[in-house]
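S1.2 Input.
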Amino acid sequence: MSGACSSAIWVRPRIAGGLAVLLMSVLPVIGRASSGAPEVIDLTRHWAGYFGIAVFLLAYLLVMAEEFTHMRKSKPVILAAGLIWAVVAWVYQAQGNTTAAEHAVRTNLLEYAELMLFLLVAMTYINAMQDRQVFEALRSRLVSAGFGFRSLFWITGTMAFLISPVADNLTTALLMCAVVLAVGADNRRFVTLSCINIVVGANAGGAFSPFGDITTLMVWQKGVVDFWNFFHLFVPAVVNFVVPAAIMHFAVPDEKPHASEDCVIMRRGARRIIALFLLTIITAVSFHNFLYLPPVIGMLTGLGYLGAMGYYLKRTHERYSNNGVEVGDVLAFDIFRPIARAEWDTLLFFYGVVACVGALGFMGYLALASDLMYHQWGATQANVTIGLMSAVIDNIPVMFAVLSMNPDMSLGQWLLVTFTAGVGGSLLSIGSAAGVALMGQARGTYTFFGHLKWTPAIAAGYAASILVHFWINSSRF
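S1.3 Output.
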């Protein structure tokens, strides 16, 4: 995120959607006891199951209303998680089984802990680069380059596509939107079309990288798709971005704004922190592929790299403190500052979702949803529909649901559902964290209905990218 923007919220729930679709998509999730655990009880027709569904839906409605209630999204789901698991444990205890619920909760917590720590390290690096003004310097250079509106439309969209595989799509979108607003805030059409293009590009770019989105990270850490297979989605992702961009291109004003003289210099240590972030990614992949350790161990090792660099910068900053460019504590770097600025509301929201739907899955709704979607509908229809659902429902519980069902699918189908869950959110402005954030950043200019006007073009890209995936990855089905 650029230095001009506040700390990024990595995952924001979709603020709309029918309850029936929500119920069907989010009930099953990780949390089934392993084969060695005590036998589970089917609670799908039990009062406890109905209670769990009602509590979760109420909590999720409060999450979707966050913009109006101003209650952080983590609060209702954390409370709901405790209530649902308490009811599950009470029912099992009444049946004389005191260990099954405990076993399921511990399994849930392990899944969450791995993902949470992984995300925490990634957030820390992004915040560290923000602290060193990496993103602000990039914004400054683009603004002062003197490009025309149509050139900036393609540059910001393409950079959103290329940056989001290693940074989160929200940070990327906010950075590119800052560029758009800096050069064309007085041109409503340019801002609207560019914001749409940025949202589509950021979501498409994140869909082909294990680091680009929480859903791809979940799939990778679960071991369903290995690291290098994600890149088979690169060409479909390009198509998903280019098709709507090409359609919108001719609607962008063919004008040239006045160039800005704004100049921002990256702070000391910026380039070294970027290099350490890339080394951290290499470490995580190597630990997983060659040592068969969870990727989170490699990421935490990378946090150690950043800590060591922070210590060096802190111990040596005084010798640079009077050089006329930066003084005092600006040069010093403390790793605990970017850690503290991590989006804890998002991380705790993530816990609440995992715990809630984990409990509901443990109740027995897993088999019901799996039978409906993957046996009656078929894998292709189910996976394409999941992408459409992600336009109105947060893709975290949707992807957890799929991973929990663990349907017997080919690699091509697993890549398909990973891809659709990532890019489906582009169909509506409220369908992704990037879209929601940009509606706030470009308030009154980039709007829900402004985005909706171009939804047919985005849908054309969605359909074309799926067809291209079936074509070029046919051997993987």
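S1.4 Remarks. Residues 19-107+343-476 form one domain.
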